[in-house]
């Protein structure tokens, strides 16, 4: 007598299943909301996005570290996570397990022959009448000669199927959409800025004639040399850098801990970019050392990253001054809100034509651009703000002996 022992030939590797954690956030971000792109059982390739974590400033994409199959989601959709929180489990198989083919259905049994019904008996023949039936008496009432209407009676109204609500006339509907974390944070920060900053907005206008002439002369050589379009934004950003260096207090910030005013010797300008998720302000750094080509390239690259939702936290940290261009939406005037902890923000709006009102200027139309500078009166006095805006106006508009900014 002998026994047969069976041995397992397939080893079970526990290392095939890995747990993917939430990536570390920047210092200013503590948590985020999870939005899943994949479900349990989905096959993913290496570096394919499994979920997005929306923080106060941007969205962080979490890719799969290896090819495999999603085995478990450890956080519900919309759940809050901190850095290092386990997100999901991934089985590193490289492909989804083959689904078992459905078992073939057994052939149906042959149908039994239907019994032939017996023929019904033929009815008996009716008797043939032997006399004519009696004729009914003629009525004494006259017969109405009006033609009979051929119109069919109106059909009865069809009742709505059960369970379906019949919409009433003039009914109005509404629906709700949850605010994402970024929009909530933007609303909170804007309200905080209004509550904590003693804000004041001063207005001015810029004659765009010199900038238009400069752009018309240089745009084709600029495009050929740098493969970039020459817009107005580079002139505005560079003019702001000159004004901030001329009036350093506009570039300063209050340190609430030490109660000191911190003067920055560098110029990092935040440029507001509108995205479907909300307004983001990526930073163009060290503008004082840039030329027009450097500024245009930096703005283009940051704008592309913002539209593709690829901005990192580091792209938006810092900033000493903000420029918001509401003119792209057709806005004519506005009072921009300061981006804390900065002390000032410049708002630019739509360019429009108007005749000049200077007595020494010929009657010709001007391409006018309104500018607004919102400032924190806790840091800046009226004189410094007005001088800073005037310096910006001279640099950008080419007045006061300036020939306009050069490429």
UniProtKB/TrEMBL annotation:
Keywords: Acyltransferase, Lipoyl, Transferase, Transit peptide, Tricarboxylic acid cycle. GO terms for molecular function: dihydrolipoyllysine-residue succinyltransferase activity. PROSITE patterns: BIOTINYL_LIPOYL (PS50968), LIPOYL (PS00189). Residues 104-139 have a biased composition (Pro residues). The keyword Membrane does not apply. One of its GO terms (biological process) is L-lysine catabolic process to acetyl-CoA via saccharopine. Its EC number is 2.3.1.61. InterPro entries: 2-oxoA_DH_lipoyl-BS (IPR003016), 2-oxoacid_dehydrogenase (IPR050537), 2-oxoacid_DH_actylTfrase (IPR001078), Biotin_lipoyl (IPR000089), CAT-like_dom_sf (IPR023213), Single_hybrid_motif (IPR011053), SucB (IPR006255). Its cofactor is (R)-lipoate. Residues 94-140 are annotated as: Disordered. Pathway: Amino-acid degradation; L-lysine degradation via saccharopine pathway; glutaryl-CoA from L-lysine: step 6/6. Dihydrolipoamide succinyltransferase (E2) component of the 2-oxoglutarate dehydrogenase complex. The 2-oxoglutarate dehydrogenase complex catalyzes the overall conversion of 2-oxoglutarate to succinyl-CoA and CO(2). The 2-oxoglutarate dehydrogenase complex is mainly active in the mitochondrion. A fraction of the 2-oxoglutarate dehydrogenase complex also localizes in the nucleus and is required for lysine succinylation of histones: associates with KAT2A on chromatin and provides succinyl-CoA to histone succinyltransferase KAT2A. Belongs to the 2-oxoacid dehydrogenase family. This is Dihydrolipoyllysine-residue succinyltransferase component of 2-oxoglutarate dehydrogenase complex, mitochondrial.
